[in-house]
């Protein structure tokens, strides 16, 4: 029947397979967590809450505003956001839209739409519609933070 060597081999192979098996993350739960983080960030930005808005970004986060140089790192991002929030008539609203999660459960991206109101050179408030991609990472503290945010205008 089975030799001792065959039984040992079978037991060893089963142990290796069981040891290598890891439970996969609940990607729908992760997607909801990313959606909640994005929604909280959008609410903070709409309220011009600078600290909460900056805290949505990772320490090594980077933003790519349209027609401007990249804004890298939390200190630079804070300065950029403070400048935007200080503009009379400025507002921003967005919807994360579609969220995709990596199979590892620690990275995600969202594809969304946004709307900005800003004064033009004559002071007239105008609305700009944009589209963008935001990359999210689960940090060591378990929070989801934006590591890259890029957006540009949409045709009118």
Structure write-up:
The protein is α+β, with helices and mostly antiparallel strands. The chain has a single domain (26-153), classed as Nuclear Transport Factor 2, Chain: A, CATH 3.10.450. Helices cover 35% and strands 37% of the residues. It is built from four helices and six strands, in the order αααββαββββ. It has helices spanning 4-20, 27-46, 50-55, 74-85, and strands spanning 57-64, 71-72, 91-101, 107-119, 125-138, 144-153. The chain has a six-stranded mixed beta sheet with strand order 2-1-6-5-4-3. It is globular, with a radius of gyration of 22 Å. 18% of the residues are buried. Residues 6-21 have low confidence and may be disordered.
Brief account:
It contains four helices and six strands.
Largest sheet features: 6 strands, mixed
Average pLDDT score:
89
What are the secondary-structure elements, in order, as H or E? HHHEEHEEEE
Overall outline: globular
What fraction of residues sit in β-strands?
35-45%
Number of strands: 6
Helix content: 25-40%
Order of strands, main sheet, comes to 2-1-6-5-4-3
What is the CATH architecture term? Answer: Roll
Number of domains: 1
CATH topology descriptor: Nuclear Transport Factor 2, Chain: A
Q: Please give the alpha-carbon distance between the first and last residues.
A: 77 Å
What value does the Rg take, in angstroms?
A: 22 Å
pLDDT below 50 for ≥5 consecutive residues: which ranges? 6-21
Number of helices: 4
């Amino acid at each position: 029947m089975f030799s001792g060597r065959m039984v040992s081999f079978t037991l060893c192979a089963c142990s290796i397979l069981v040891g290598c098996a890891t439970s996969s993350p609940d990607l729908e739960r992760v997607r909801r967590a990313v959606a909640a983080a994005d929604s909280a960030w959008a609410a903070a930005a709409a309220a011009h809450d600078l600290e909460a808005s900056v805290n949505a970004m990772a320490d090594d986060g980077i933003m790519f505003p349209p027609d401007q140089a990249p804004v890298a790192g939390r200190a630079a991002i804070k300065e950029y956001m403070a400048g935007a929030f200080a503009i009379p008539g400025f507002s921003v609203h967005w919807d994360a839209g579609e969220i995709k999660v990596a199979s590892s459960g620690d990275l995600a991206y969202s594809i969304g739409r946004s709307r900005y109101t800003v004064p033009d050179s004559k002071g007239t408030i105008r609305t700009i519609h944009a589209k963008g991609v935001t990359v999210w990472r689960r940090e060591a503290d378990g929070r989801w933070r934006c590591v890259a945010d890029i957006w540009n205008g949409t045709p009118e």
